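stage 2 :: seqdesign
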């Protein structure tokens, strides 16, 4: 008869795996993917390196687990923040949440968005970007349907926004502290890209009225 783990044993193993994932997240946050090793994660978690390998087959497997946990948490935050309101309000909330949270942990954002990783981890990264794009897509589609935004393909616009925001967060800002204007500028860019008209650019001055 095959051995079956009791609920108590399974709970202990799940807790141990969770501790290791949490430790790996901390290592990624200060050392990046290139600097993560199973030994470093074990030291952070306070367990033997062999214990890490009992839970995860290797670095890629472990970081994939980190991606799944972190992405689920971050996407949930964006979805919740942008769940209601006008299209402008929803897009603003999505950008503000996405960018603001990334800038609080730029090293981890770099890992999640662009740092060279193994193929299996890159697969998780694609899911990460798609999940964020879907949050934007919902807001854009609603704006088009309500006539708040000009006609456009919501999926394409959403993917473009996520790509552009990601480039700003981990490209020009990677080697320098970000200024307080970064998030407001990203919000302005996103709204312009979606066709939201800025009343200050109406082209009609008081003198012309």
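stage 2 :: out
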């Amino acid at each position: 008869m095959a051995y079956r783990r009791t609920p108590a044993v399974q709970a202990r193993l799940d807790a141990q795996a969770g501790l290791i994932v949490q430790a790996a997240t901390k290592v990624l946050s200060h050392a990046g993917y290139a600097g993560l090793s199973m030994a470093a994660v074990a030291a952070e978690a306070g367990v033997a390196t062999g214990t890490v390998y009992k839970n995860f087959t290797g670095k890629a497997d472990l970081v994939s687990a980190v991606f799944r946990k972190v992405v689920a948490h971050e996407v949930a935050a964006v979805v919740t923040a942008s769940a209601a309101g006008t299209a402008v309000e929803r897009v603003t909330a999505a950008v503000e949440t996405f960018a603001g949270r990334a800038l609080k942990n730029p090293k981890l954002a770099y890992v999640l968005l662009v740092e060279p990783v193994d193929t299996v981890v890159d697969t998780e990264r694609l899911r990460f970007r798609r999940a964020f794009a879907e949050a934007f897509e919902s807001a854009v589609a609603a704006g088009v349907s309500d006539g708040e935004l000009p006609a456009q393909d919501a999926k394409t616009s959403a993917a473009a926004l996520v790509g552009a925001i990601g480039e700003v967060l981990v490209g020009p800002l990677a080697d320098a502290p970000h200024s307080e204007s970064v998030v407001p500028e990203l919000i302005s860019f996103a709204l312009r890209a979606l066709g939201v008209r800025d009343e200050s650019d109406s082209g009609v001055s008081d003198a012309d009225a």
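stage 3 :: structure notes
- The chain has a mean pLDDT of 88.
- The first helix runs from residue 7 to 31.
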